[in-house]
Design goal:
transmembrane; single chain; mainly alpha; globular; about 280 residues; Undecaprenyl-diphosphatase; 12 helices; membrane
């Protein structure tokens, strides 16, 4: 029975990693779904440390998908700062980097100040997650047919702050981070490609910051000595699932099928609110 129990544990963590990885890039709230999964199947999810670990897997997938954009931004940012390159492309990319930093600030500040309160209030209530999922669905429905005109070089500091505050709101489980930032970007008139790119590049500093802030607690938690293999399986599952989910979502955005995510959030949110 001990071997069977170990295999069940490994399968459970692999499933959770794949589940979180698939739901992270698409606008249905991975954190909200983990709360639902916990209550529905009475699962022990490993707490905040587990969520940080599998989110790091999603971060790696985002880095892979947007590697060409990141390489260009790093190259042009370096050229602007240290090689006196001031052509339009280099200047636009440097400003884009600055905007990513500015856009990160609201979520970072709110996360530090209210992170524990949000986790204790929303992370413990599936009914509240049901409500926030419905809110996510409404927001997606509103922008389902929008087509903006602003490209990467047309963003203003106010546009970026709006998107950044939307990301901060998504600290609540049930409010999708990708959904909130893309909705905000589309509402202020950005093109779909720009909304997508800014949303997922904005995820990078937030995710890295979360890992850095929690790395000491993670190392001292004893996970490496007791749960290394289950966590690694979840981590690898998260990378693979996030990669394919993100590639799929990019195609969905191009085809303008956000309404299906809105329908999904309406249905799941209502079921959760009524029955959990």
């Amino acid at each position: 029975m001990e071997l069977v129990d170990k295999l069940i544990l490994l399968f459970q963590y692999l499933f959770l990693g794949v589940f979180q990885g698939f739901t992270e890039p698409i606008p249905i709230s991975s954190s909200g779904h983990l709360v639902i999964l916990r209550d529905l199947f009475n699962l022990e999810l490993g707490g905040l440390m587990f969520e940080v670990f599998v989110n790091f897997g999603s971060l790696i997938a985002v880095l892979i998908v947007y590697r060409n954009d990141l390489i260009r931004l790093i190259k042009n940012g370096w050229g602007f700062l240290f090689q006196n390159q001031r052509d339009q492309e280099t200047s636009n990319d440097f400003r884009f980097i600055v905007y990513l930093i500015i856009g990160t600030i609201p979520a970072a500040v709110l996360g530090i100040v209210f992170g524990d309160w949000i986790e204790n209030t929303f992370g413990e209530s599936a009914k509240l997650v049901g409500i926030t999922l419905i809110i996510t669905g409404i927001a997606l429905w509103i922008i389902r047919n929008l087509k903006g005109s602003k490209g990467d070089g047309d963003l203003s500091i106010w546009d970026v702050l709006i998107i950044g505050f939307a990301q901060a709101v998504a600290l609540m489980p049930g409010i999708s981070r990708s959904g909130a930032t893309i909705v905000a970007a589309m509402l202020i008139g950005t093109k779909k490609a720009t909304a997508l790119r800014f949303s997922f590049l904005l995820y990078i500093p937030v995710s890295l910051g979360t890992v850095v802030l929690n790395i000491d607690e993670f190392i001292n938690s004893g996970v490496f000595s007791t749960m290394l293999i289950p966590y690694l399986l979840a981590f690898l599952g998260s990378i693979v699932a996030s990669y394919f989910a993100l590639k799929w979502f990019i195609n969905v955005m191009k085809e303008g099928n956000l309404k299906y995510f809105a329908f999904y959030c309406f249905i799941v949110g209502a079921l959760v609110f009524l029955f959990l």
